[in-house]
């Protein structure tokens, strides 16, 4: 999933549960649960890990995704009167943190994070390795629709 999708879901969770700790916890858990849904980025991850020549494409995707997510979070925070900003913020942090930890592992290859990377990809690849992935175009389109729907819940 895109960081924007994880951030949006985390925001809705924060808005719904209302407490920062639960927002973070449920946002963090939601990351794994929603990553189980095939979402078209397995080829990008494989390009980064296996085909080192195509790393620029994968890194460009991650950079654009991060910028869009940041824009989304700032736009929502500055255009809506959110009563429980702490819970909203911690829901977003919990929602995107697993991908940031995986990114940190990819950069450092520290053995301390190997288990987390393995866990993350066990969820991420649960159906993809069994049934195959969906085309990235359709996955992004579906996520845009999901993000638009989730925004109605804020």
Describe this structure as you would to a colleague:
This is DUF3307 domain-containing protein. Keywords: Membrane, Transmembrane, Transmembrane helix. The chain crosses the membrane at residues 12-37, 58-76, 88-107, 134-152. The protein is an all-alpha fold and 154 residues long. The chain has one domain (3-151). Helix content is 79%, strand content 0%. The protein is built from 8 helices and no strands. It has helices at residues 3-17, 20-35, 42-49, 55-79, 85-108, 111-124, 128-131, 136-151. Helix 1 runs antiparallel to helix 2 and helix 3 (42-49) packs across helix 4. The longest helix has 25 residues, at 55-79. The protein is globular. It starts with a helix and ends with a helix. 28% of the residues are buried. The mean pLDDT is 89.
**Mean pLDDT across all amino acids:** 89
* Straight-line N-to-C gap: 20 Å
Q: Class by helix and strand content?
A: mainly alpha
Beta fraction? under 5%
Low-confidence stretches: none
Strand tally:
0
Outline: globular
Number of domains: 1
Largest sheet: none
Number of helices: 8
How helical, in percent, are the residues? over 70%
- H-E string: HHHHHHHH
Query: Compute the gyration radius: what is it?
Result: 15 Å
Keywords: Membrane, Transmembrane, Transmembrane helix
Protein name: DUF3307 domain-containing protein
Transmembrane segments: 12-37, 58-76, 88-107, 134-152
Features:
154 residues; single chain; mainly alpha; 79% helix
Reconstruct the topology from this structure:
Layout: H1 3-17, H2 20-35, H3 42-49, H4 55-79, H5 85-108, H6 111-124, H7 128-131, H8 136-151
Helix pairs in contact: 1-2, 1-4, 1-5, 1-8, 2-5, 3-4, 5-6
């Amino acid at each position: 999933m895109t960081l924007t999708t994880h951030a949006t879901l985390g925001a809705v969770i924060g808005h719904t549960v209302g407490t920062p700790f639960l927002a973070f916890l449920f946002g963090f858990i939601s990351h794994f649960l929603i990553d189980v849904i095939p979402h078209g980025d397995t080829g990008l991850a494989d390009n980064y890990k296996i085909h080192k020549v195509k790393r620029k494409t994968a890194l460009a995707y991650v950079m654009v995704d991060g910028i869009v997510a940041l824009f989304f979070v700032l736009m929502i925070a500055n255009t809506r009167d959110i009563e429980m900003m702490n819970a909203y913020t911690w829901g977003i942090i919990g929602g995107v943190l697993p991908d940031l930890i995986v990114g940190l592992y990819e950069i450092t290859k520290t053995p301390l994070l190997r288990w987390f990377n393995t866990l993350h990809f066990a969820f991420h690849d649960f159906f993809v390795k069994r049934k195959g992935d969906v085309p990235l175009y359709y996955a992004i389109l579906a996520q845009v629709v999901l993000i638009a729907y989730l925004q109605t819940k804020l």
